[in-house]
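Appendix B. Raw example, untouched.
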Amino acid sequence: MEEPTRSDQVSAASYQITAHIDRALERQQACSYVREAIQSLPPHDRELIEEIFFRGITEEELGRRRHVSQRAVSKRKQIALNRLRSELSPNP
C-alpha cells in the first residue's frame, strides 16, 4: 500500500478544515435562529427563558421572586418552550 503524498495530505487537511468551518457556521446560524425565536416570545415568557437558561436561576428561586409556586413557573416554562419549538420547527 502506498504512502499518501504530500498533496493527498494537504487535500485531506483542507477537507477537514472546510468541514469544521461548515459545522461552525451551521451552529452559528442555529444560534441566530434560537435568538430570534426567543425575541419573538411575549416579554414575560422571554424573561423567564432568559432567567432560567442563561442566568441559571432555578424555577424555585424564580417562583419566589415572582410570588408564584415553582409548579406555576414550570408550567409557564413549558408553554414558552412549546412556543419556541413551534417557532423553530420547519413549516410544512
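End of appendix B.
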